[in-house]
Amino acid sequence: MSVQDENKLTKIKNSLESRVVTLPDGTSMPRIGQGTWYMGENPQMREREIKALQLGIELGMKLIDTAEMYGDGDSERLVGEAIKGRRDDVFLVSKVYPHHAGLDMIAKACENSLKRLGTDLLDLYLLHWRGRVSLAETIEGMEKLRKEGKIVRWGVSNFDSDDMKELWNTTNGKNCMINQVLYHLGSRGIEYDLLPWQREHHMPIMAYSPLAQGGSLRRQLLTDPTILEIAEKYAVQPLQIALAWTIRSNNCLAIPKAVQEEHVLANAEAAIIELTKEDLNRLDEVFPQPTRKMPLDIL
Ligand SMILES: NC(=O)c1ccc[n+]([C@@H]2O[C@H](COP(=O)([O-])OP(=O)(O)OC[C@H]3O[C@@H](n4cnc5c(N)ncnc54)[C@H](OP(=O)(O)O)[C@@H]3O)[C@@H](O)[C@H]2O)c1
What we know:
- The protein is of the alpha/beta class and 299 residues long.
- It has a single domain, classed as TIM Barrel (Alpha-Beta Barrel), CATH 3.20.20.
- The protein is 40% helix and 12% strand.
- The longest helix has 16 residues, at 3-18.
- It binds NADP nicotinamide-adenine-dinucleotide phosphate.
- It holds the Pfam family Aldo_ket_red.
């Protein structure tokens, strides 16, 4: 590795260490973590996927997000293999299906996830989306898991502002640590009321699909002249600008998923990019903030 490369790696690691979000319990987390949807499903990709996650951990993207749903447990198994021997370097997140989030099922679902992940503790357990089980029951289940030492903390995913308000008014609902929602430059609906509500209640957002799935959800992220110009200014790729935009403030961390080594490096490198007010204003012109309530974007 050349001196230049080493300097860059040090810069990436330092940026990830210093640009953090703080959870309501005081835990600090680098603003870029790693997603794992579709990982573990293709045996031929297995080695590459494991290496990608390990490289990400080495660079400092220590939060790994998975779910019992992904590949029917295969993603958790793959993550388990990737973190073997490095559990302490990782902040492990998994999600429970809504139909497993009642008191009769949640303990078993969590136990199964722990087994597949090869660990005895989740750092964060999320309700994947809202289903038929009452919030009160899911919260009770989460709190029980916390007391039993199976999870350190819990949160939710795909909750809109009304769901968050209801959660807040449910017993122990204020113990929720984060809400994982779709958020990228081409999907800014949450900025109307959800993001302000969460900021007011000191609860960060975890942005999923922060690259709009490599631009496939919003091709404009790869081709828009303003993004291209800003990317040129920083000598980076357009999607790195999109990722840097997502983590521009201290109440949002993003979990891009990447298997290709150059994507992992590019995503970690995005932590170095601090967009200026002028850059942000220019991006606002092309990708405007919402001016009215929008339905929550969900994948
Ligand atoms: N809670 C929920 O309901 C929910 C829903 C969706 C996603 N999620 C979580 O959020 C994670 C991220 O979202 P996502 O996987 O939907 O989409 P994403 O992270 O926005 O995009 C992933 C795609 O972008 C490509 N990519 C990654 N880095 C890149 C780069 N620097 N330049 C160009 N292309 C790049 C990847 O390619 P390669 O893999 O080939 O490198 C992959 O095809 C998921 O993996 C999952 O953990 C949660």
